[in-house]
Design a protein that fits this description.
two-stranded parallel sheet; four-stranded antiparallel beta sheet; elongated; 6 strands; Nuclear Transport Factor 2, Chain: A; mainly beta; single chain; about 90 residues
Length: about 90
């Protein structure tokens, strides 16, 4: 999937259409102190069964593309999520 460097879109902060700089959304750093992670570690301890459901035979193909749009007027950022799941690499041109 190819995205342009500059995209005309609506900015919800300054409430008008204008140019936005496009970058790709990345996964954040994982924290071991989050509530879900702490609970998972607690359940995983001991001689019990698996804390998660068994793996599926069929998986979803590809990830959804998240574009981070930075407004050129006010400088605020917001996200645009593309519904289609992309197998190919997403690049900005």
């Amino acid at each position: 999937m190819k995205l342009p460097k500059i995209l005309n879109a609506y900015c919800p902060h300054c409430r008008r259409h204008g140019g936005h700089d496009v970058s790709l959304g990345r996964k954040g750093k994982q924290s071991s102190m989050r509530e879900g992670q702490r609970k998972f570690e607690q359940v995983k301890k001991g001689y019990k069964g698996s804390p998660r459901t068994p793996k599926k035979d069929v998986y979803k193909i590809g990830k959804r593309t998240v574009a981070v749009l930075k407004c050129r007027n006010c400088g605020k950022k917001h996200q645009k999520v593309y519904r289609a799941r992309s197998r190919k690499r997403t690049e900005i041109e």
